[in-house]
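Question (not urgent): is this output format expected?
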Amino acid sequence: MATVQKKTPRRVRRHRRVRKRVYGTAERPRLCVFRSLRDIYAQVIDDDAGRTLVQADARQPNVVPDGTSRGALAAARAVGLAIGQRAKDAGIAKVVFDRSGYLYHGRVRALADGAREAGLEF
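Got this back:
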């Protein structure tokens, strides 16, 4: 329990430090990732307008393949493919990647790879 209490504030500090520089505009919105123990979420945000343009998460039907845990690497890749496809449908080709203080490893990397595979350019 003590480890979790130490890890979360450190991640939040990293996230705030990165967000000073990572900013989404209308031409190049921000692809923000949130990872929980059970699910993974992604949204494309225009920080100038202060609104979410598209979003995808592992809880939505038809995003994660049947028989796959929502917290697995395959689920993260599927969410990346879904967010990439939805962004392309909305006319978004380039984004800046906001990993929210998480290490670029595991499910965060799988989501990014899925979004790139769907055609998004980081």
